[in-house]
């Protein structure tokens, strides 16, 4: 396995992790705002 593909895999995992965290935070934030409104 050449170093480049290892770096690509690491970047992919980091990007997925960031996307999941942002998506989860957005969902929780929207739910919280909805709770405050009602």
Task: Provide an overview of this structure.
- The chain crosses the membrane at residues 12-35.
- Keywords: Membrane, Transmembrane, Transmembrane helix.
- This is Putative membrane protein.
- The structure is a single chain.
- This protein is an all-alpha fold and 38 residues long.
- The chain contains 1 helix and no strands.
- It is rod-shaped, with a radius of gyration of 17 Å.
SSE layout:
Elements: H1 3-37
Q: What's the mean pLDDT score?
A: 93
Taken as a percent bin, the fraction of beta residues is under 5%
Distance between the termini: 55 Å
Low-confidence stretches: none
User: Structural class of the secondary elements?
Assistant: mainly alpha
Oligomeric state: single chain
Shape: rod-shaped
Keywords: Membrane, Transmembrane, Transmembrane helix
Protein name: Putative membrane protein
Transmembrane segments: 12-35
Descriptors:
membrane, 38 residues, transmembrane helix, mainly alpha, Putative membrane protein, transmembrane
